[in-house]
TrEMBL record:
It comes from Rhodopirellula maiorica SM1. GO terms for molecular function: cytoskeletal protein binding; identical protein binding; protein-macromolecule adaptor activity; serine-type endopeptidase activity; ubiquitin binding. The keyword Cytoplasm does not apply. Residues 12-66 form the SLA1 homology domain. Pfam families: SHD1, Trypsin_2. SUPFAM superfamilies: Trypsin-like serine proteases. This is SLA1 homology domain-containing protein. It comes from the Bacteria. Keywords: Hydrolase, Protease. InterPro entries: Chloro_Bact_Ser_Proteases (IPR051201), Peptidase_S1_PA (IPR009003), Peptidase_S1_PA_chymotrypsin (IPR043504), Peptidase_S1C (IPR001940), SHD1 (IPR007131). One of its GO terms (biological process) is proteolysis.
Amino acid sequence: MFTTLVQLPGSAAELRTWTTSDGRFETQAELVEANDSAVTLKKADRSVITLSIRKLSNPDRDYVQEWLLERQQSETSRPGIVPDVLGEQVDLLAMIDPANDTQTGKWERDANAIVSSRSSRARILIPHSVSGSYQLRLVAQRQMDTGSLNIGLAVGSRHQVLAIFDYGKSKRSGLAWIDEKNEPANSTFYRKPVLRTGRDSEIVCTVHHSHLRVTCDGKTIIEWTGDPSRLTLHPNFKIPSDRLFIETVLGSYRISQMQYRPIRESELRRYKPSGKPSPADSVALIEHPLGHGSGFLAAPNLLVTNHHVIEDAPADDLKIFFPEESDFANVHGVLFEDVDRDLAILSVETKRVPLAVAYDGYVPQGESVQLRGNPAMGGGVTLRNAVVKGTTRSTVRVNGFDFLQVDASIDSGSSGGPILNELDQVVGVIAMKATDEGEKLIHDGLARLDDSFEDKSRQQTQDGIAFGIPAQDLAKALDNVRGMTAKEAGQRAQLHENRVVFKRLATLAGIRLLEANVNAPEEMRQQAARLRATRAADDLLELIPAEPARLLRSALQSKSIQDTIALLQQDMDKHLNAIRSSPYLSQLSIRDFNALSQKIKAIERFTQRPGTDYLRFSTNMLRFQRDVTRLMTEIKEEL
């Protein structure tokens, strides 16, 4: 259940009486924030006040201290994604003696930094053994416009790999070697320059047993997951397997900081994937009672999809199936939602290897790509992990956002699947909403130019156009999720659940109000006609005319609508109980959720026995409408 992501005691938020130590001030309010000097309180009318802690009564001060302790404990609770815990920092730079540790070329001390001289290779070993998971942080500055910086990393205790920055005239980056292939031939290839001459850059290498990520100035440049036995150094390197090293090639670099910190891995990172990342293995079918779509692993335990695929389903309802139907992943929560971009990221638990993402976002025109998804074929048939070949065209703007345009035909079930280049890097996320809108815009645009374009535009639509969310937007979203604290992850996951419950309650409220109106008996309709003809109608409910009411009543009683209502009501009490114990909603919002649920039940009971008095019926219905509107408005303010 999603409430296990982060759980606070039920007393963490409540409406209570607050008094000052001199007894001159008293108020009913909820504690919403506190620090060592002041408290922020929200009253029942939603007004906010701030009081100094030293002015509070002793019982209130004790309550604040207990509240702060519970809040602190909640931030270390286990959510769906648990950050790594970094150990004590070790200053590696202070350990290095260039005279003893330089292996090739020349390195020298310069104040508190070390600097390499330009040579074919200047390599220096770091005199510190590493084991297990760790983080290496260094600050480096390029001294001239040419030359690459390479960092030798130990992975999985017995394996090594070289992280390369700005090698050669093209200034390419990536890992060498993976499966005995250097960076242009493996999935970590990054094509854009990373480092700037004369400017400090912070490089952070985070290394786990089977997962490696390298960032520069906060931006992910390299990410790789897989069996560490696939990683090797070139045979010319003679480096102990537990040692790190730095080298420069045909250039000079100044290293002013270098720190090492061991890592205690989060629980969801403790797995040992085998084999290579494969689109055939890492693309999933996402199902829930109200729909289905596609998704794919883009980082350890993070599944990417379109927002519209999962927006109507709580995490408990989401079923994630990989190619073997028996292989499904548990969903911990929805950690990222961008409605405008139609992008979402789920926290899942799986041992499968994620696909590589083209973090530079480079997609040349005319490049061959493949699109993978689970298209619906009609008649309840879904084609699992289907592959569609395509060719990239250009970047186009649809409704204010840039999308990658691909010549390919796709169906709705492919929403959220990956678009892959020839290195099997993800260069985009299939966006069906953008595809539908984009095809319409292109068709309309061509038709407006000249009638002679109509046939061409029809053919173009038949041939198929697909749109994808660019990889650089996906990379930003992934970095956003990785930077979350445990508390933030829990808040994001809970917010999704609250929105889903709110949508369901709002829909049910609309259905129940409509049912009450169309079920009004004929006698009441006759009363309404007479009254509305003799008095102002502003304070009277307008009844739907008899014939439209009959048709609507028949539609509401149909099996499809009744099945939809059943789905909306499914597990509602469980979801509302979870909201009641949520640490991320105020007591006022929790009461609003409860009140809206009770109001819907009251409308349903009223619908079953509306009576025959039109004035009484009108008064009750208008009150129901006002109450529902007010409650929905108040809930939306916090969502």
